[in-house]
Structures are given as C-alpha cells and as structure tokens.
Amino acid sequence: MIRQTDCHQPPTAPDQPLIALAFDRKGQLLAKGEIDEGVAHFKLKPAELRSSRVFVLPEPDDGLPLESLSLEQIADLTTFEPRLNLTDDGGVRLGIIPESLTEIWLWKRCCVRGRITNRASVEGSLETYPVCNATVHICEVDRIRFWIERIPEDLLDRLRYGLIERIPVPQPPVPDPRFNRVLLNPQPLPPVALNRPVGAAGLELQSGSGLSLGLDEVAFNPQPDPPRDWANSLDLGRLQSLQVQLPSLRSADFRQLLVDEFQLFRPYFCYFPYLWPYLYRCDEVAVVQTDNNGRYEACFWYQESAPDVYIWIEYPFATGIETVYRPHLACYTRWDYACGSDFNVQLHNNRIPPVCGVGLVGTSVAIRAIGHSVSPLAIEQTFNRTIPVPGNANFRTVGLTNYATGGLGSYSPLLTGQHLRPYLGTFPLIAQFGSALPAAGIHYFQVRYRQVHSPTLVGPGTPSAAWKTLHSGGLSRTHVRPDGLDFKYGSYSLGPLTVGGEEVYRIPPFDPQDPGVDGVPPSTEPLARWTQYDRVAIGQVNANALDGDGLYEFQIRFLNESGNPAAVGPEFFRVPDPTDASETMAAPEDYILTDGGASSFRFKLRIDTSAPDMAIEGVSLDGDPDAMTDCGFVEYANLSQQVGLTFTAAHPQDFALFQFDLERGRRLATTNHFALGDAQGMVSGSKTPYTLGPDGKYRANFSVNDLLAGCGGKAAFSEVLTVRGLHTDGHQAGNFFARSISNSFALAPE
Fold first, then answer.
1. Does the pTM exceed 0.70?
2. Residue ranges in 51-152 assigned as alpha helix (H)
3. CB of 139 closer than 8 Å to CB of 4
4. In terms of Cα–Cα distance, which of 609, 612, 633 is closest to 621?
5. If DSSP codes are grouped into helix, strand and coil, which group holds residue 638?
6. What digits encode the pLDDT tens for the residues 57-80?
7. Crossing angle of helices 153-166/251-260, nearest 10°?
C-alpha cells in the first residue's frame, strides 16, 4: 500500500519511526501501538492480544491512513510479524528484527508521469491530439502469489494445459471487446471454490463479491494492443524444459512451480482471465488530471522493489464523466515500473474532441504567455536589477527570462535559475479572455511597442519614445464541432480591423455560439467549442521586424466600440499563478500602465538577434604561434615545454555559452576520456583552466609531459569548440545559434 506525495519535494525517505498494528482473526484492526525499547504497547487486554496478529513497520509521513488498511493489505507490505511473547504489563516483545528486512522496508518515493493522447478523425483524416482535463487513476498492483494455493483443481488443470499449449513464445491477446472493464479496487478474497462453468471469454464471481468479468459490451472500445515485447526477456530454454515437465507434475508441485516461476509465467497469465482474482490486487494511490498537453504526474510512497503500476482514465463528456480506458489489469500493468519514465496511453475514441482549457470567469483578461511557454512573471521587469555571472558581478537582467535556466549549473552554479535569456525569432503573445467579454465599452484589443534602450543598456535610453502599433497580420481563433464520427474545424477571424483610425482586433465571445462584437456568433452549431479556452494568440512578434536589438516595452490595451481606450482598471489584468499555472492571479503593479482612467498591460523584453563569435587558433609552443605546421604537427625538444591552446567564444552582450573539449586519440571513443583541457562556461568570464583576455580570447598552457602522460613520446589531439546562444523564442531554448568547430594537432619529438 502506498500514498500520494508531492512530486516536487526532494526524493528522500521521510523520518520513519516504527509502529505496531494489532488485528483480530477476522482481519479487523484492534489498535495501533507504540514501540519503546523493543516492546510494542497496546491499549488492549492480554486476552485480546493473545488472539491477535501483530505487525511492525515504519510509519510513513503524516497522511497515510494505516488504520484504514485491511489485514491483507498490511500483510502485503514489507512488515515484521513477531511471535506473541507478552510482557507482564501487556506489551509484545518484538525480539530481533532481521537486518535484511530493515534494509528494504523504508518508504521510497516514486513519480508516475506520462501523456494521454487521442487518435480520431478530424476533417476526414486521422489526427493525434492531447486529451485535456481527463482524470487519470493510478493504481499499484500487488502480485498476491500466496493465493495460488486457493485456485480450485479444475481451474488449475485448465491452466496447466493452457500453458502447455502457449509455451514457448507468448503473444498476449488483444483484449476481447466483450469484456467489461470492471472496478478493480477494492478486491475481495477469492471464493473458496468456483465449481460452476466458466465461459472462455470471462468469469462471473458470486453476487456481492465486487468483481465482475462478464460479457457486457462497453462503449469505449477498441483498446490498444497490449505489449508484445515480453518474449524478448523470457528464458526460452527454461520454458521449453518446463513445458515437458508440466503434464506429469503433481498438483502440489504445479502450485509450487507457479510460485517459484511467477516472473517467467507472468506474460502468459494475460491469456487466462479466470486466474486474475487469485493473482493480482489493485490499490488506487493517486487521482490526477491531465493538463493542456495531455500530461499527468503523481508521486507516492512505496516499499521494497520497483512498483507495478496500472492506470485507467475517465473523460468529462458534456453528458457526464465516462470511463474511456480501463483495459485488463493482467495485460496492461506496467510491471517493475521505472519511476519517472513516461507511461503513455493513446486512445481511439471519436467522441473526445480536440478541445483544451478551462474558461476564465468574469470581466477580465489573463496574459498567459510571451511566446508559447513563458509566463510574463518569468521576465525580469526591474531596470536596475543585476546578478553576478562569471567575469561580471553586475550583469543586467531587465527584459530577460529565467525560462529553461534550471539546468545551466554545469556551466556555472551562478547561472542556475537566473534571468539570462533574451528573445529572438517570431513568437506569439498568448491571452485568455474572461467569460463576460466582450462587454459594453470593451470590444477590441491592440498591441503596441517601443524601444526604450540600446542593446548595451548604457545611457539614459528613450523611456518616453512614441508607441508603434504591432502589425501581427491575420489573427483568428479555431473552433471544432462533431460531425458524425468526424470532427470539423472552423475559424473565426479576429482581424485586423480599422476602428477610429486604429488597427485593432476584436475580442472573441466566450463560446462560439455567443454573439461577437458585431452581434454575429462565430458558429451557429450548438455543439461547437473553441479548441482552446485558455489560450488565444493576440499578437505575433517578429524580432527581425522591430527597430533592432535592445530593450523594448510592449503594451496590450483594450478599446471601446469607437477605438478609444476602454475604461478598465488594473484589476482587469491577470497573469498565471506561479504555484499553479492553470490558475490566475492579479497582475503585479510593475505590469500595469495607467493613463487617465484607462489601464493597460505592459512588459519589458530584451530583443537580441546577434550570433556568437567563435574560432580555434593554432597551437603554440612556448609562446611561438608558428610552432604548429600546416599538417598539424608540433615538435618539442623537452617535456617541460608549454603547449598553448587558444580559442574565441564571445557575444556582444555575453548571451552565449561555450564548451571546449580537448580529446586525445584512443582506440575506443567511449572510454578513457581525456579531460585535462576541457571547460564549459558563459562567455562573460574565465573558466579553469582557461583565462579570458581583454581581446576576447581564451588561453591556457599545458606541459608536454602532462599532455603525453601514459602515451610515451607522441600523441594526437582534437579540439572541439561548441557555442550556443542563451536566446529563446518563449518555447525553444538552448539551441539557437548552436554551432561546433574543430581542429587537431599531434605532439612528437624533434
């Protein structure tokens, strides 16, 4: 049994003192005890304790309701069950807990994540798109092998000959569409005997058992094929040997074989649904919703080895929530799940529309992103804010974003999570309109910009420069409607329009059926929906079409029916909540510009389209730049001579990173990496062993002896320099202006 936990906390085990639980013979929890000096103390009478079962285990962090677990669930955990040796005061002496148990029973954290997509017909062609706002149920599957002894003899014989027929190579069956994807939690104990006939397609348990594997049709078939790579991991020789033994094994020996070779036989159990109640139990550990990309994530505590994970999915149709994915547990469990790896599911459901997002309620607008992925709050707005970076203690960050900088610590610890990235390329401005828009006096929107400082940020700048209208070209919003077994897209033009002499765009209504600013709805179809309710492109910025590199200020303002500024206050504007990007919060005052009775949204942004410079110079010897021949040889006289390496990695505003690798020739490129001359950093400063000179070049000297260590008197070397810009377009980052160059040389005696 495991519990959900925060996916963003450090992956360490919580403080786990020991506790004791006492159960009666019917499996009911009697009491939770405290352990002191090797004795478990319960508030129970001695007679109650003598007829109980006591389990000792580490207590997880607050929140895991151990008292709610059944005896079977507790027994499945990695616990210690002591002999009932009672003390005079009514406690239970624990004795010595095996070290082999204490080493593995601490709680560990596992995060399950993945993406849910749907493949269905859109505009007459199959299209794969994310499934948003779906509910993903995450379950941990227990392999309850001790129930094998309870399998009735008739089913055991049926299994025996089923295995003989299927071995050696399993091809797990496609789930029979007649199966009902049933509730698998909680599971009851299997019945003592199942003597009545069982159909080939499924099993019907006794009434009230909580489990039904009948022949009911379901509405969400077909299901995807089960995994087909199990055979690659099977010991086929062992299987073939067991195939020969199976006919002659006694019943007890066959049961023991199933226990001993459970892992080997496990893929075959997918064929035999009548066995599943005896082999598996599923406990739900987390319930989460998918985001706008169809992704989900949940973390929980578990014990011992890697958990076995199963998921099932619900979707909120207009008619109510329905299960859209619940395949057979035995065939679709992710056995020994690698925590953190993607558990993806692709649905094939022609009722799930390509629609994402939750509406914003009220008369307001949320500025969601600058570029597809960067919140306005992730862009520094304070003009004089500085941070230390290599070689520069006062690096100016205004207009830069900290998007995708959490992994830059390998270049320098100073860079981790800092505002370092300027913008370039073409990128959208993304907003979300409230449900009460358009409203009286609020019909249109417009984006304007002005350059307020040069690329160097030196001097007073031009903070009062005239505003210019951003020409974004045609903007539209897409809606979708069901059409039989297909979906059809439609488009609603936002503009540009000319109103009151201004180039503007109209605010779309909350739903496609609602009237627009001109009184005409975008769609007359009653089932039409916007494809995204929380993302509308309200502008398209082309960095190359602006007024050059530098610091810019952008303004998003709203206009009335005459094209004049709308009377909206600061509270009209919202931004994504940093703690939950699906929610919004009031825009900070740094982002608000008020002129008279009209407020607008503004933000500062650094634009930089300059590529980094890079070069590798020839190798010098004792300062002689001509020591290297045109064929790459450097001939030395003694081992103490100094070999000089020089390269250039630069950017006018230091918006770049470099990586320099000096490699020595070797037989196998994946081993014995030569690290003596390697370095990576920001182009703003030196990085050991290289010193950045005033001419913008990195230099370092290495003795011939150090370079040739372990190679005798001669060796060949390669130099590889990689430089990449720190730039982003609000979605991609890390590969703009990325380029590598190389050189090589060889050391040899004169």
1. no
2. 71-76, 99-102
3. no
4. 633
5. coil
6. 776 654 455 666 667 666 656 677
7. 60
